[in-house]
Amino acid sequence: MALTILFGGFLLLLVIGAPLAVALGLAGSLAILDAQLGILSVPTNVYAGIAKYPLLAIPVFILAGLIFERAGVAKQLVTFASSIVGAKNGGLAVVAILVCMVMGGISGSGPADAAAVATVMIPSMHKAGYPKPFSASVIAAAAATAILIPPSVAFIIYSVLVPQASVPALFAAGMVPGILAGLSLLAPTIWLSRKHGFGLKDAGPRPPFWRSLRQAIWGLLAPVIILGGLRTGAFTPTEAAVVAVFYGLAVGVFVYRSLTWRELYEVLAEAAEMSAVVLLIIALSSVFAWAGSTMGAFDRVAALAIEGVGSEVLVLLLLNLALLALGMVLDAVSIFLILLPLLTPIMTAFHWDPVWFGVMLTMNLAIGQFTPPMAVNLMVTTRVAGISMESTVRWVLWMVAAMLCALVLVTFVPELALWLPRKLGYL
């Protein structure tokens, strides 16, 4: 009965429109009551769920991403990338992808990356002859690399839920797959641009290289400082987030002079709101996870899945399909919190490397961020472009297919994810 309440109650609450945090916490609490596990375990698990040092990095990285977005770093990076690529056929679309990848190395959040780049790129791409649905699709897909290229909020949460995978190892493991995912988008972007003649209109003179480099160097140095400090041991991932915030403040206030006190207050308020939502979901999901693991529900479901399917390759394929489907309707953080208690026993049973497993899961969820109907990145870019999500489908499916090819490579060639952390001594 308790297991029925746990899973059935959770699904019922979601169907009737309850917020995810409420559905997780309430279903877990009712199951604990029914199983007589002690109601005092609820507040204990709520506190224990967020009283973890690595989670301190989440609100600070969210703040860092918002500061860099408002500081105008994306605009300077676009100018610099344009000076390299030029305004040739498909050139601005390639610039958008490259800038999204660099911004992903600062923000760690797909929607924040999409908002920053779309605001700058979509008007200039439209002027150069790119349809807004195409531009929105390219930027939404490229922004999804933000949760793969370190620093990544998704990797921090995964490391808390799966302690065998450290944050530095996950950051290193996400680098090659993240770059591979971004580069995979270049093929359909360039092909579609040339096939339909996008970008042939006059987009203005090519920016001078050295001047644009001087302006963009502050944004380019951000991921170097963050990742370099982590590699040398100068600071932990949590401390790296604090360094990123103060570096972003220095760039926005003293270098670009684009951050006012009013804007800084708005950034702090928005970061606090976003962080509160994420941490509330984490806190209440701990109740759900504790109830399920204490009653042995997750182990039983995992055992049934392994016995029913048997083949390791088939399990991997089905797992990827399920994650892709869930990624269309839920965000990465929510999926991790709901599914990882169930997936960890499967990972252990097949002796999969937890670092590679985390990268593979995150890559699935990255694809979900720009796959309709509930693609969070695509919601952001279509809102900036002032278009409907339906108008992007004919373009965005090409991007989905391209990144799926990269996912297949990472799934069946684990060394793509594990080579760098091994080289750096994290594994």
From TrEMBL:
Transmembrane segments: 47-68, 134-158, 170-192, 213-234, 240-259, 271-293, 313-343, 355-375, 395-420
Record's subcellular location: Cell inner membrane
A cellular component annotation (GO) from this entry: plasma membrane
InterPro entries in the record: DctM, TRAP_DctM
Main localization category: membrane
GO terms for MF: transmembrane transporter activity
Keywords attached to this entry: Cell inner membrane, Cell membrane, Membrane, Transmembrane, Transmembrane helix, Transport
Record domain TRAP C4-dicarboxylate transport system permease DctM subunit: where: 7-416
The organism's place on the tree of life at top rank: Bacteria
Membrane topology: Multi-pass membrane protein
Subunit structure: The complex comprises the extracytoplasmic solute receptor protein and the two transmembrane proteins.
Family per similarity comment: Belongs to the TRAP transporter large permease family.
NCBIfam families: dctM (TIGR00786)
The protein's role, per its UniProt record: Part of the tripartite ATP-independent periplasmic (TRAP) transport system.
Protein name: TRAP transporter large permease protein
Organism of provenance: Azospirillum brasilense
Lineage: Bacteria, Pseudomonadati, Pseudomonadota, Alphaproteobacteria, Rhodospirillales
